[in-house]
Specification:
Rossmann fold, 2 domains, 14 strands, single chain, alpha/beta, 6-stranded mixed sheet
């Protein structure tokens, strides 16, 4: 199946000489939610702005559903909706006028029913006649999403969409995103809330210093790179890990009252049985234990640290 977005050997070097992107190759599948993660300055926004036709690349190609963003600009751009980080509105316009104008800018016929559905889905219908200057920051951000959806794009970019949005509205927003995905819209998401990517995304891409360092199905990524932690709560605190236990690569936590053991669930053995035997031999007893899985945030931090 042809990818909805195909990025090949994409580079961007600014006039200052700063190379923001270094030979990016990336394919986005139709109808998926793709989360693009990376630290500040990694190149996320530059990449999105190039794909959306806002910034001109220095080299390489980008195709949206087969349309080149440079040579077939109008066709490519009409397929895209963008929700930027910045709140950019005419503060004296009403919500309805703003969203209607956005649809009209794409040469689309008036479709009040579609705009009403968008505003209702985003809990904005009751404020359709309100001027933007009267809205909260969270509502203004939802208006940005409504504008991006006004011309019925098949690809939607969400660049930090929930920044400044309260938890309850954030949940509503993600429900809208899931509904869009279910209707066939491809979603590309950047976020600093890594738990959102873990909850929402089908695939994860990690960018650092202008390079894509990993693209993986979320479940496969968690399966391959996620580790489990075994936490033992000790009866008596330790000042240091006994020499007899050094081979287990344990860590002390919580003032020496906990031992942390990290293991790979995919390995032939977890080593837990041997650890418990060695603990007993060393005269160390514990009152409780629990296991926890590495989060996507743990994996992300490790990946970025390895690439420094």
């Amino acid at each position: 199946m042809q990818p909805i977005i195909a990025v090949s050997d994409l580079t961007k070097t600014y006039a200052t000489g700063f190379q923001a992107l270094k030979g990016i190759n990336l394919e986005i599948r139709k109808g998926e939610i793709f989360a693009l993660l990376g630290p500040n300055g990694a190149g996320k926004t530059t990449l999105i702005n190039i794909i959306c036709g806002i910034v001109t690349p220095s080299g390489g190609t980008v195709r949206i559903d087969g349309h080149d963003i440079l040579t077939d600009y109008r066709a490519a751009k009409s397929l895209i909706g963008l929700v930027p980080q910045e709140l950019t509105h005419d503060m004296f316009e009403t919500v309805w006028a703003t969203v209607s104008l956005s649809r009209g800018l794409w040469g689309k016929w008036e479709d009040p029913a579609h705009l009403e559905k968008v505003l209702r889905d985003l809990s904005l219908w009751d404020r359709k006649d309100s001027k933007l200057m009267t809205l909260s920051g969270g509502m203004k951000r939802r208006v940005l999403i409504a504008k991006a959806l006004s011309h019925q794009p098949t690809v939607l970019f969400l660049d930090e969409p929930t920044a400044g949005v309260d938890v309850e509205l954030r949940k509503d927003m993600w429900q809208v995103v899931r509904s869009l995905r279910d209707s066939g819209v491809t979603i590309i998401l950047t976020t600093h809330y890594i738990h959102e990517a873990e909850d929402m995304a089908d695939r994860i891409g990690v960018i650092n210093k202008g390079e894509i360092i990993l693209v993986e199905d979320k479940k496969e990524l968690m399966h391959k790179l996620g580790k489990k932690l075994l936490t033992l709560q000790l009866h008596q605190s330790l000042d240091a890990i006994p020499a007899a236990l050094e081979g287990h690569h344990l860590a002390l936590a919580n003032g020496g009252s906990e031992l942390i053991y990290t293991y790979d669930t995919q390995g032939p053995r977890t080593g837990i049985t041997r650890l418990l035997t060695d603990l007993a031999s060393a005269g160390i007893s514990f009152k409780d234990l629990e296991t926890s899985q590495s989060s996507l945030e743990d994996i992300f931090v490790d990946l970025v640290r390895q690439k420094k």
